[in-house]
Every structure is written in structure tokens, then in C-alpha cells.
Amino acid sequence: MPGINFGQQFFRISADFSIKEKISDGTSKLIIGKVFYDLSAEKIIYDISFPEPETWVLQDTTLYRFQSNELLSETSSFIIPNSSFFHYTLSGQLADFGLKNSGYTIIDVEKKKIRF
Amino acid sequence: MKKLIAFIVPFLITGISFGEEIKPDVLDFNSALIEAQFSELDQLEEYVLSNEGITLKEVVANSNAFDVNLDANMLNNFAVNAGDHPVAGIPSFLWGCVLGPIGIAIVHFDAEDKDQTRKAIWGCVALGGVYALLVAASYIFAFSAYPF
Q: Hey, which of A53, B62, B84, B123 would disulfide with B97, CB 3.0 to 4.6 Å?
């Protein structure tokens, strides 16, 4: 019964990340760290090592920034953990990025070829 | 709040998608050109990864080794991009300035962000200041036009 063998559900994910940006004013950005996501807690944690050690915790619609276990700031965010790539990966919704459960009905799907 | 954002974001995306005709060359993705532009950052990334725990200050001290003009406040700017979103895209100052205490209440309960509430309060204070100036100006005009 292969269905039963696939019964194990993953609920945590971690990944190394590097964010590189080039800005029109000639400056550049490089942010390096690790990211963790817990499906049951619906919380994204960014453990940043460069440019400065910092921890960002994204829960619900709030972004908390910590440095040396001290809260630096608390701001609202448009990035919602349960609408993130990590959530869709762990909950098996990556195929449609959660659109089926968003309250909308898919009527038609059109594919366009993009040149790379 | 989450449901509200989840409902609004698809409208914003479709608005951006259909608001302007996409030029054909926008979809041309030249990966070689982009990789070439990021080559200095790639070198820096390798250097940082091979020197665990190194900070921006230490990299700047060795900046001769890298031809990269790094943004000194990259984390702050990145966090602001991720977090600074006023209610309905309208600046919080305007909420307070136009609607007064009602605007402050809307910002306070919807944005749930002390900084945004503070901006709305400053907007309300500005409104009060303008109102006080207008009242003072009208009294001055009245007394000057009809002196006792």
C-alpha cells in the first residue's frame, strides 16, 4: 500500500540563503544566513550572519528583529508565513501556490511561453 | 488582517499585470548578462562563506579586494521594504491629518504598528495646528476689520 508508506509528514524546513541585490544608485546588497520554517507554528525565522548577526522572526503579519536576543524593532509585514513558499512546499500546495484554498475558483488556465 | 491581505494581494497583482502592456523585450531574460553583473557579489559571497562570522565592517576594511559598493544600511533598508506598509497604501500621516482621531484609530487597529500610529498622531497634530492657525487668523482679521 504505497499510500500508507507515504504517510510521514514533514513539518519543518531549513535552508541556507544568499540575497544579492544591485541598486540603481550603484550600491549593492548581500545578505547571507539560514532560514527556518515550522508548519505547525507558522513562523519563519531568518538567522542572518552577514552583514551583521541578526535574527528576524516573521509571525502572522508582524516582523520582529532581534540582535543579541534584544528586540530591535517590531513592524507589520505583507509577507505572511502561511502564504510563503516554505508553507506551500511543506503543505503540498506548491503546484498552485495555495490558490485553490484562497477563496477563488479557477475557471481557466492559460500557459504562455517565456523566452529564457 | 491576514484574510484581508490575502484577499487584496491578488487584486494588486492583477492590477500590476494588466495595468500596462508588457513590452516584448521585458520577457527576454539574458542570464549570462545578469550573472556577469553579479560576478563581484558572487566573489564576495564566496569570501564571506569561507570566513565564517565575518561582518560588514571587516569586509569594508578589506574593501580593496572587492570592487563592490556595499549599502551600509542594507539590513535596515531591507527590513523597511518588508515591513513598512501603511493602511490601504495611504500614508499614515494623511490618515491622521484628514480624519483626525478616527484616522488614528483606523491606523492603530488595522496596521498594528506603533510607528504607523505615531505618524497618524503627527498628522492629527498637524491638522490641529492648521485649524488653530486658521482660527487665530480669523480672529486677527475680525479684530482688525472691526476694531472696538
A: B123
Q: Does A110 touch chain B (CB under 8 A)?
A: no
Quick check: B55 and A50 in contact, CB under 8 A? Answer: yes
The owner of cell 483626525 is B100
Distance (Å, whole) CA B56 – CA B77: 15
The single residue listed with the C-alpha cell 544591485 is A22
Range of the domain at B140: 88-148
Encode pLDDT of A61-114 as tens digits.
888 999 998 888 887 777 788 888 999 999 888 888 888 877 778 788 888 776
Closest residue, chain B, to A32 (C-alpha): B45
A77: left (phi over 0), alpha (psi -120 to 50) or beta: beta
Q: Using CA atoms, how far apart are residues B102 and B122, in angstroms rounded to an integer?
A: 13
Final residue of a structural domain among B66, B83, B100: B83
What total of structural domains would you count in chain B? 2
With a threshold of 0.95, tell me whether the complex ipTM lies above it: no
On whether both B92 and B74 belong to a single domain, the answer is: no
Angle at B45 between CA B43 and CA B48, to 5 degrees: 110
For residues B62 and B48, state if they share a domain: yes
**Is residue A17 classed as helix, strand or coil in its secondary structure?**
strand
Q: What is the dihedral of CA A105, A106, A107, A111, to 10 degrees?
A: 160
Write out the three cell numbers for B77. Answer: 533598508
Q: Is the pLDDT of residue A43 over 60?
A: yes
* Residue ending a domain, choose from B83, B107, B131: B83
3-state secondary structure at position A9: coil
Q: Which residue of B has its CA nearest to A22?
A: B38
